[in-house]
Amino acid sequence: MNYHSLVKAMGLDWRVCSRARLARDPRFDGKFFIGVLSTRIYCRPICGARTSGETSVRYFPTAAAADEAGFRPCLRCRPECSPGTPAWAGTRNTASRALQLIAESGLEDGGVEGLAQRLGIGSRHLRRLFLRHLGATPSAVAQTRRLQFAKKLIDETRLPMGQVALAAGFGCVRRFNATIQKVYHRTPTQIRRLARQKSTQPQNQYLFHLSFRPPFNWKRLLEFLAPRATPGVEIVETGRYRRTISLHGNDGYFEAALDEEKNALNVCMQFGDPRSLFFIIERIRAMFDLNADWAVIAKTLNADPALARRAESEAGLRVPGCWNGFELTVRAILGQQVSVRGATTLCGRMVRAFGKPFAPANGSTHLFPTPEVLAEADLTAVGLTRARAETIRAFARAVCGGRISFEGIADRDAFAARLKEIPGIGEWTAQCVAMRALRDPDAFPTQDLVLRQRFGKCTARDLELRSENWRPWRAYAALLLWQCPEEAASIAGRRPRPARYPAVEEPKNSRVRVPLVAKRGGSGKVA
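Above: the chain sequence. Below: its structure as tokens.
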């Protein structure tokens, strides 16, 4: 059996792996591993080492498969500790996982000792891992993030320095002042004076400029969000997106608008607890897909004639995320087998009946209902069928009980399987949630009727075969197809063809020991 047949037998497609490897997108970390023939070393897709040519690498579904094939783990990216491996899922003793936790909450929960305890390792070992892989201690990494965020607050807000220190995670104002002075050779007040910010904001209101890599198709992003905006919670108008938010017992709202000259989104936020600002900003960046690299994604989409022209005219398309995974899943359940407009109407009724009233803020009137409220709500009173109402209640109970959680997900397939165990949730809903809540760039709802109609009402199987052309960026392909009704006639009726991958050079067969691994698969029922 040649190399390509062996890789296929293991459930991998070398062409898809190649695209993900060249993108170095962290969303693929742990999904496959890369063996370099010249060094006999295997790495993770995010490894910062020099990129090898396609003919010099081999792909494996697990670290164990690479080991069995005679490769040794890279000492730089530590593939044996990547997401989904026993080391990551069990003791979580990796610098990658620690960085994720620092990004979520800094070192506020017990400092380095507390972070090490959450990872299941000793603090000294954690420091050694950071020094080996990052060249800095956990404290230094956390302080750099705090400094960057503090500088942003100083430059872009009128927040008192004491509150800036609190929001950025410094223990006291004295330490904050000393650190700023040491790094920037100026006091916080001098830095703010140099920023020359003439505008004044009300109390607890902040203005941020969130940069992105152009192009960025803000118009299409809003066109997708507008008909799905939950009445009372979300508003899309005059080129702006606005919504209410709730976090850690505090309520507020934010508004986002495009600044084309600065290649940034201007985000105006009203929120009472400055300690949550960093977390909110990171969530907004994910919500609008600001970290995506369209140039890399477009190379794959342009290879298919059915997408090429649209991908060119819609350059900078982004996959809309969500503010809250629970809210998005409820919205997806409401959208099963009904129109977008009908689902939005039902969602608005549910919010008015069970959501928490919010002091009017430019039209926003409610916060989305919590899992605790919907778990006991009589949703048939707002027009839902008994079956749909029970699905939402069962999902809310699963979230309340901890069986479903949207935080720290390492295995998306396992999460989808747990989600589909809830009666009334099938593959379509799970893929929509993966696309927008889990930020999976390869999620693709092949059962979606609109997507199938784009190709002459083809079957889900035919669409699955056709979509192989677009991996691992199928979520972006779905957005292109959802938002191009004027081109439906031009691509309808074309028979799905076997996947072609002209953008990647195919390596020649070589003799390499690759163990056969059973291919994972299976699909749920259509919601």
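The domain at 3-81 is CATH 3.40.10.10 (DNA Methylphosphotriester Repair Domain).
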